[in-house]
Amino acid sequence: MPTPHNNAKKGDIAKTVLMPGDPLRAKFIAENYLDGPVCYNEVRGMLGYTGTYKGVPVSVQGSGMGMPSIGIYSWELFSEYGVENIIRVGTAGAVADNVQLRDVVIGMSASTNSAYASQYRLPGTYAPTASWSLLSAAVKAAEEKGGVFHVGNIFSSDTFYDDADSLAQWQKMGVLAIEMEAAALYMNAARLGRNALCILTVSDCPLKGLSTTAEERQTTFRDMMEIALETAYSVK
Ligand code: HPA
C-alpha cells in the first residue's frame, strides 16, 4: 500500500535497495546500470526505480539529505515494502588524515551527534553498526575492484555547516569521514531486524579545504556504484 511519501505498491520494490541522497542520482543509476528500470515513485520528487542487475532485481531510490529524511524513507522501505537490504551510496568529507579525495569509505559503524537514538530510551549509548552480510560482501567487491578503500567508523552529522567546528575531535577518535545519514539508517535496520550499509566516496576534505569537481565526482561515483551493485548481487 502506498505511504504518504511513496507511491509504490507492494511488490514494486526489490529486496535490495541502493539509496543515494540525490533522487537524480537514483535516476542516473537506474538508467545507466539497471536493465528494464521502471519508476515506482515520484512523490516529492524522491524518485525510485526497480530494474535488474545481472538478472537480479534491484531498486534504487533517493533518500534526501540528513537523518530525518533517510529515517522516513528507509523505515517505510523496510516496514511497508518488505525490503531486506538498504545500501546507502553517497558522498562524504574526509576526516582521517590518510583518507584522500576520491577514496571509497565503507562505514562499519556510524558515530553521530543526532538525537535519533533517544526514541529507543536505552540505558546507555547505542553504537549504530553496519550489517556483516553487506559489509563483508562490499569489502570483497572493493578488493576485487582494486581501488583505494577504507573500512571503519564514519560520523553522521546533523549539520553540514557546523558552528562547533568539531571535526578535529572526531579525527582524534579514528573517524574516517563525515556524512549525514548512515547512523539513522543503521538504527532503523537494527530496530526492524534488516540489513544496512553505507558506502561513500570522498568528495571533499573539510579540514584541508579541498574538494573534487562535479566531473570527478561522477567518475568516482561509478567505482562506488559498482561496489554497491556487486554487493546487492552477492546477497541475492
Ligand atoms: N559534511 C557533511 N556531509 C558531507 C560532507 C561534509 O563535509 N561532504 C560530503 N557530505
Structure description:
Helices cover 33% and strands 28% of the residues. With 236 residues, the chain is of the alpha/beta class. The protein has one domain: Nucleoside phosphorylase domain (Rossmann fold, 3-Layer(aba) Sandwich), CATH 3.40.50. The chain has a 5-stranded mixed beta barrel with strand order 5-8-7-6-9, surrounded by 4 helices. Helix 3 packs across helix 6. It binds hypoxanthine (HPA). Hypoxanthine (HPA) binds next to strand 5, strand 8 and strand 9.
How is the topology of this model organized?
Blueprint: E1 16-19, H1 23-33, E2 35-41, E3 48-53, E4 56-61, H2 67-81, E5 85-94, E6 104-112, H3 132-145, E7 149-156, H4 167-172, E8 177-179, H5 182-192, E9 195-205, E10 210-211, H6 214-234
Parallel strand pairs: 1-4, 1-5, 5-9, 6-7, 7-8
Antiparallel strand pairs: 2-3, 3-4, 5-8, 6-9, 9-10
Bound molecules: hypoxanthine.
Residues 91-93, 157, 160, 178-180, 203-204, 206 line the site of hypoxanthine (HPA).
